[in-house]
Design goal:
The chain is mainly alpha-helical. It has one domain (5-80). Helix content is 79%, strand content 0%. The chain has 4 helices and no strands. The protein has helices spanning 5-12, 15-20, 25-78, 88-93. The longest helix is centred in the middle third of the chain and has 54 residues, at 25-78. It starts with a helix and ends with a helix.
């Protein structure tokens, strides 16, 4: 799924100023509603960025901790750390 809100907002952002200079009264009236729509779009983008930051925080705080706990349990059961899924070369590279 392609999210195009950000790119579309970039395209329509100058439209309200352009509409305000139109000779037709009906078009000039649409400028104010378009400003509100663009503001709503900006708010949605801000919410999306916030959600992405919260998701990244969750991954770092919770998922990494879970993996560490699972690996510690493996170590206590098997007496050795889990194998590196990247192979011996990756472990040697550090």
């Amino acid at each position: 799924m392609r999210l195009g809100l950000e790119s579309e907002l970039g395209k329509v952002r100058p439209w309200p100023e352009s509409l305000k200079t139109e000779s037709e009264k009906e078009l000039r009236k649409e400028a104010d509603s378009l400003v509100k729509i663009i503001a709503a779009g900006d708010s949605a983008l801000a919410a999306r960025r916030s959600a992405a930051a919260q998701r990244a925080d969750h991954r770092v705080r919770e998922i990494v901790r879970l993996i560490d706990d699972v690996n510690a349990a493996r170590l206590s059961v098997y007496g050795k750390p889990p194998a590196n899924p990247m192979g011996a070369e990756a472990a040697a590279d550090g």
